[in-house]
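re: ur question from earlier - yeah i can do the single chain one, its not a big deal. heres the input i used so u can compare w yours
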Amino acid sequence: MKKGLGHKPCNKHSITAGRNKTTSPMGIVCATLLLMIAGSISGYAQDKPTHSNPWAPTELGMLPPVASLAKGVWLKGELHVHSSHSKESSNNSVGKIIAFSKSVGIDFVCITDHDNHVDGDVAHNTWTDPEFKSDSVLLLYGGEWTTTRGHGNAFSAVPYDHQRLYDVRDQRDVVIGAVKRQLGIHLSANHPSGKDHFGYSYDMVNSIEVWNSAIWPKNANAIMIWDDMLSSGRKLTGRGGSDAHHGTPDSPDKATKNTYQAKANYIGTPTTWVFATERTSQAVIDALTNGRVCISSNPYAPRVEFYADINQDGKMDMMMGDNVKATGKPVKFRVQLTGNTSVTGSYTINVIKNGDKFNTYQVSGKTPMIEFTDTPATIDRTYYRVEVEGPQTAYPQVPQSMALSGNMVGLSNPIFFNFDPNF
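and the output i got, formated as tokens:
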């Protein structure tokens, strides 16, 4: 039986059978098909448009100038604590919170009672409490925005209409964001991972609680979320908050099952520091928004300071929270611990760059300090931040907090390069 044309192989021998042989009809067909395919591929390669990502990083225009490093004051405070106006708290009146804060040298406090416990009317509960006053501690106005999609803290230097924020808690993020801007408040994401994680857009918050309570290990996921937000271009301030609910009873008969917590987690575990232009409530809010902020394990622990010399003239030009354009030249960075440092112990300084560990340094002495040099990308965003581990500083008023914080002494906010302020 003869083989039909459909069974004849199409190969180079059927296309070109040699000089002295006539090309077969099947060879002509195969050759034509191959030429057509080759032409199509070639044409596709030539016609394919060049893709240009409209969102790719480009060189930024002028950035706002860096504020003075000399004109300012370090203030330490508590940004997440509950008084008796939060129904689940105990033995923690407004007066006790303020008196304790003053006794341990706290400069500012925001009592953040749960707004859902008073149907959103924080203004006529916590803020009108007769004990809501102080001659030395700066009292911020705020409340914990307690919703089915998570919790956040509102901070303000002056009274605002918190009821409006509570009323839109179940609306879309775009509505909530508009109300937040109208109120002129600083909104912060509370304990972003876990049961009451922050389930709203991070585009409408100014800061994130990266250290909640004295129990440092439970904050690993919060740090991860923070790095994710920073790496994607969101310039969010990292802050702390004890989230303390329970105080010490006036007499044994007033003790509750949660009374023990006052010796383990209370005001200042951790402590949030701000470098404010002056000692006022508004300056505290401004520093918190701008990111000139660090966190320590308690009010007596050393403060982590992070600076950069962008032209290497021996003078520090910027600090944590600041944002400048990269020059393409090396930058010298400085990390120093200020305050009650351990003279005999040593500290481990971990530098994180763009979410990844950049380097680790060991330091000791009366004023521990390290310097390192790196070159930020010329166009792309770059950020550096610091975490410090080492011996805990004693906190006699809350003695069990030291063990809960473990080796974590403090952390800084980032130094930024090429972050778009209009992102």
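The chain is about 20% helix and 25% strand. not sure if urs matches, ping me
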